[in-house]
Amino acid sequence: MTTSRLEAFSDGVLAIIITIMVLELKLPHGDHFEDLKGLIPTLISYLLSFIYVGLYWNNHHHLWQIAERVNGKILWANLHLLFWLSLFPFATGWMGEHHDSTAPVAMYGLVLFMASLAWYLLAQQVIRQEGPTSKVALAFNKDYKTKASLLIYASAMAISFFEPRISQVIYALLAALWIIPDKRIERMV
Q1: Contact between residue 119 and residue 75 where contact means Cβ atoms under 8 Å apart
Q2: Is the pTM for the entire model greater than 0.70?
Q3: Sign of CA dihedral 116, 121, 127, 129
């Protein structure tokens, strides 16, 4: 089976996730710029999640540019990734409204961790399908960036039980790290 249907389906799901996130944003109760102050944490959470969904969309696109085919295991691994990404609107909204609280910030970190783990598992499944000398295997050789991210997400979740704001900064810094294009994949595309 080719990758086009999987990519099209995933693009649609990611578009819906972003749409849900923006529809969850509440309008200010007044008509002055000062009325936006109370929404700043929610807007920052939205921006961070928008960046994360964009990062997954971008990396997902690159993956399917170098993969040649999919099988049932890859379809399920992709659905596993989409499941965790579909929780972004929930985690974003909860953290946006309760940005100083442990549970929402830890939950946001859990969603980030599980999405990253699902991404890693998807890539590994594609490597198994394509073979050890494939473009995908060469591009994802050792994948230190994803493995380090998993460790950092887990650490940030633990930190959220003591200082949620530090965890939020870590989540933002990790997103900034992923904005830098992965040269291994870009060379293969």
Answers
A1: no
A2: yes
A3: negative
